[in-house]
Amino acid sequence: MAEDFKGQPRLPNFAAPRRYDIFLEPHLTACLFSGTATITVDVLLPTQFLVLNAADLCVDTSSVSLTTSTTSCSAISPVSIELVEEDEIMVLQFGSQLPLGESLLKIEFSGTLNDQMRGFYRSKYEYKGEVQNMAVTQFESVDARRCFPCWDEPAFKAKFKITLEVPSELVALSNMPVSDEKFNGDLKIVSYDESPLMSTYLVAMVIGHLDYIQGLTTDGVQVRVYTQVGKTDQGKFALDVALKSLNLYKDYFAVPYPLPKLDMVAIPDFAAGAMENYGLVTYREVALLFDARFSSAYSKQDVAITVAHELAHQWFGNLVTMEWWTHLWLNEGFASWVSYLAVDAIFPEWNIWTQFLDETSSGMMLDALSESHPIEVEIKHANEVDAIFDSISYDKGASVIRMLHSYLGADCFQKALASYIKQYAYANAKTEDLWAVLEEESGEPVKDLMNSWTKQQGYPVISVKMNSNKLLVCQEQFLSDGSSAAGTWIVPLTLCCSSYENSKKFILTSKSDELDIDDLILNKKGKQETFWLKLNTNQTGFYRVKYDDELAAGLKYAIQADKLSLMDKIGTIDDANALCVACKGTLSSLLSLLDAYSMESDYTVLKRVISVSLKIANVVDDATPDLSDKIKLFLIKLLESPAEKLGWDVKEGESHLDTMLRAELLMALVRLGNTSTVDEGIRRFYIFFNDRNSSVLPPDIRKAAYVAVMQKCTSSDKWGYESLLKIYREAHQSEEKMRVLGSLASSPDKSIVLDALNFLLTDEVRNQDAVYGLNVSNQGRETAWEWFKENWEYISKTWVSTPLLSGFVKSIVSLFASYEKSKEIEEFFANRVKPTFERALKQSLERVNTKAHWIEGVRSDESLAEVVSHLADKA
Ligand code: BES
Ligand code: ZN
């Protein structure tokens, strides 16, 4: 009978928890914990079984009892208790059918405060000169079961009443405010208010030596930022963003913040970037702390986005929760989209919606692989859940929301959302529930339109051709390896012609269509040479566009003549790049198009120009080593003039975007091997190394100098490597440590790369950070692969948490660009792959094959040599 419950995607629903009374006693020095769960269970259908989740817990079987209303004085015990390890469930069988209605299930258990950054774990930090343990929880997706037995699925919402027994001198936080504190010698018993209905993955606890700063929202909600003692100053920026975001969201969602308080805590060891636990949001230090003296402008922006994202979840995710992990994207895609809305309102000068196109671009990159998946993805087992926290759920999710938002209009969209939140508050919703509300409020066929984007993987490339005054459009699924596939989408097409006033909207519902644009063309009145046409105005649609030669020439003109919006400039080069990678366009035409950006000075556009340039520089090393130097020379010239305008030193009162642009440009020039940039980076590094207070190397440009140093570092002169290690060891900021880690393996010297990789496995590098050290130079990639294979046993045991282990696999595998290597890697993993990183592995291998295919395309580009000579000489 218990067999029936094994290997199932979900728990049976004949019983549901209503309230959890959880008592936990963590032992911070022994790294153990013990606890009692008293769960009010509602038996809904006749059964002899209770099936709930538990993993890595030692359950005291003699303690398990069920007190039903009919047996109120004498509790009954199960006749058997089976713990099914592979399914992480606990099956309790009772001697007879359980009475319908509520009963109390009591279970005592104990466990280890693990080092895996999931469940109930310990994080290490220094307090008064000594290393201490902090007890922390991370339950999403499926790890609440590692802390206490529970119905660990988002749809089983219940109320939580938490009590902790902890050393008296420590701060102990949970989702709700403290209701009572009783001191008992060295220990105290802290109880918290009962929570409203919530899902298990949002329960949280943090126990350690912490300090805080606080503020109040306009509604009087108390918001605190907790940090290690002495670091609260670094929490001010996040606190400010939090207060502003909360004020904004309560209006946007038209529902007040649902809890009496909000705490945000910086955790020294943390697997993800941040976690939206209800009322107790946890962060990596770099995602919460900001200090103008030590942090870059980029980090500042990252903190703002992260805070705005996690706080959006307090409504979208926590108050209204996805019914099952298939709808994870509702949580993540939406929180991502809305975080930009909040940040745009708080920092209008950051032009954050233009920066949003980075998200769209990474979503499109992943979704152009056959190994991608639909936004709504079937989840057959708990061990598959973590793997879908990827660019599809986040970036494609957020992008299709932006597409719908722009189609329906801001007001209509917001009204519908507010009504969705109200309707599903304290409950769960599926994707179709959101569409139904939006459809009702807007009167538009939202469901049909959006199903085509969320239920099938991939997206189309729209080919456009002009035929007299008609536009022929045709859609086909876009895949990075140039192959074709069968998808068709309902595409909200937009276009403009020679001016942004001159625009049109269409819905493309079939494979191809003919659009009459007579009215738009008439306006051009014979000025043939200044005619341009851009589809997908401001890149609000999740599709790519391939223009015929004539239209492509018009667009190139529009870029040179600076007629396009920033978003359209970004979209044009991004699409051209993707088409080139898929061998649907040549590298020579991509390079010619890049040349049209030579007068550009905007951060958002240049950032994309840079990322395209670096991809090209990387592929030509493998594809056409003969032309590689010349191509790099052209790319250097393209980036040199904006870099010279900005210089190395911060200008008085310069914009946030210029500060970030300087960092991008200098880093790109170093990576392209531009001698003067590398030399200047090294010169400034010497000065900075000898005087850390010197202003020659502010945090924004420091990494460019570090990479320059490492590029010149060899095993016969390891000064650069040793100096960077010294900086790493002396750094107090996690951000600074990350900068060093991200540079160490970029030396062309193989033995230095090996040293850098081995360093990642020492206890000087936190497990959460090691993946950042895998930025390996092309020359060092074979060394990295050998190192990876040799250490796989250790790596796979140490980094069990999915995002980190997948990160390892992705970083190493994507260094390569040949079919042979991809085969070799596949063989290595044949009997080593696990569900937690299988998706990441397959996608990375596909990327390797795609690059190999691109290399073939580049080699067959007959005009490349000539175009390159022309561009390099002219520049
Ligand atoms: N819910 C996630 C945290 C998470 C990620 C839990 C993966 C379990 C697995 C959180 O809201 C989140 O999305 N965090 C992001 C940062 C955000 C700014 C995109 C992260 O951790 O990278
Ligand atoms: Zn999120």
UniProtKB/TrEMBL annotation:
GO biological process, one term: peptide catabolic process
Cofactor(s), by name: Zn(2+)
Cofactor, free-text remark: Binds 1 zinc ion per subunit.
Pfam families the record matches: ERAP1_C (PF11838), Peptidase_M1 (PF01433), Peptidase_M1_N (PF17900)
Domain Peptidase M1 membrane alanine aminopeptidase: 237-453
GO molecular function: alanyl aminopeptidase activity; metalloaminopeptidase activity; peptide binding; zinc ion binding
Enzyme kind, highest EC tier: hydrolase
Protein name: Aminopeptidase
Active site: 310 (proton acceptor)
Domain Aminopeptidase N-like N-terminal: 17-202
Major localization class: cytoplasm
Family, as annotated: Belongs to the peptidase M1 family.
Subcellular location: Cytoplasm; Microsome membrane
Keyword set includes Hydrolase: yes
Enzymatic reactions: Release of an N-terminal amino acid, Xaa-|-Yaa- from a peptide, amide or arylamide. Xaa is preferably Ala, but may be most amino acids including Pro (slow action). When a terminal hydrophobic residue is followed by a prolyl residue, the two may be released as an intact Xaa-Pro dipeptide
Residues annotated for Zn(2+) binding in this entry: 309, 313, 332
A cellular component term, taken from the record's GO annotations: extracellular space
Superkingdom as given in the UniProt entry: Eukaryota
